[in-house]
Amino acid sequence: MDLSVRARIRAGDPEAFGALFDDYARGVYNHAFRLTGDWSVAEDVLSLTFLEAWRLRESVDLDGGSLRPWLLGVATNTARNIRRAARRHEAAVGRLPREEAFPDFAEELVGRIDDADRITRIRKALSRLRRPEREVVALCVWSGLDYATAARTLGVPVGTVRSRLSRARRKLHKFAATDPGADTGNSRRSHGQTVGDRGSAVRPPQEETR
Fold first, then answer.
1. How far apart, in whole angstroms, are the C-alpha atoms of residue 79 and residue 82?
2. How many C-alpha atoms does 120 have within 13 Å on its Cβ side?
3. What pLDDT, in 10s, does the model give residues 195-210?
4. DSSP for 136-194?
5. Is residue 16 within 8 Å of residue 9, measured between CB atoms?
């Protein structure tokens, strides 16, 4: 993204923001799902990310390339905030008197999706990671950011990104060894597939890297 477009973003140009959304919405949406494991929550993260990006537009540097890493950083923080709010909500609900439970037919519907089992295995594996480890996996493995860019996105040293990713990979490999059917997501790098828009989606060779 050239200097003039960055300047337009900083100035709050609606057309420039529309182009920003068109270029990067899919990448932000996929990143949000990888962090949350829930399509509905990912939609919320997507919407809130661009609202927050509008609020933070004056923080965009005039010099630089693609704004994709910046947007992924905003999305990561947004997902964190949503998780905190969800935990507070769950804690509050947990204090309410229990009501009669009814069958959850949504689970039956999800089971009809071709890759539902695969999604479940991936979520199970990633749920065993600490949040910082899940974030570096999402940024470096899924979104393809290099260590330096991921470090700037998360606001941590490069060495921290390396160590978190190394720990995450060891844990995922250990999980795969104990569960042969587990798919930890690393296989996507070899054939370019991601868990995409409600069912299956194939990530292009370069996902919104402009």
1. 5
2. 11
3. 333 333 333 334 544 4
4. HIIIIIIS---HHHHHHHHTS-HHHHHHHHHHHHHHHHHHHHH-TT---STTHHHH-EE
5. yes
Sign of the Cα torsion 73, 130, 119, 111 reads: negative
Please state, in angstroms and as integers, the Cα–Cα distance from residue 111 to each residue in 43, 114, 162, 196, following that order: 21, 8, 36, 16
Q: What are phi and psi of 193, to 5 degrees?
A: -90, 145
Would you say 126 and 137 are in contact if contact means Cβ atoms under 8 Å apart? yes
Is residue 201 helix, strand or coil?
Answer: strand
Q: What is the pLDDT of residues 92-137, one digit of tens each?
A: 656 656 554 444 444 444 444 445 566 667 777 778 888 899 889 8
**Residue 93 token pair:** 């609900």
Distance CA(162)–CA(29), nearest Å, equals 25
Burial of 28 (0-12, 13-18, 19+ CB in 10 A): buried
pLDDT value of position 52: 93
Residue 105 token pair:
């037919």
Cα-trace Rg, the chain: 18
Distance (Å) of CA 57 to CA 37, 45, 67, 147, 152: 28, 17, 11, 24, 17
